[in-house]
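Lab notes, practical 5.
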Amino acid sequence: QVQLVESGGGLVQAGGSLRLSCAASGSIASTLFMAWYRQPPGKQRELVAAITSGGTTNYRDSVKGRFTISRDGAKNTVALQMNSLKPEDTAVYLCFAGGVWGRGTQVTVSS
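Output from the prediction step:
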């Protein structure tokens, strides 16, 4: 079974950038759907961005134009580039692939 480990979270000021990375222990080349979710404090988990094996992407409206999801089959990674961060982006960000969840990485955006 694939295991996922996220990295790249941290504390950043509003307007700043972070790049999250999710490393898979096994091959993700055949994984049809990979995604980043987030869980803000006291709120439910929500889909942030998704990418298919063919490269089709989908984003929640509030991050369109600011976040970019990408995947590298050769390196077994999926990344989330986050620009123009806002305080409302503060959350634990989790990677999802092949029915498996990572443990998450904290992103905190200060105003």
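Observations recorded by the TA: The CA atoms of residues 14 and 86 lie 5 Å apart. The mean pLDDT is 93.
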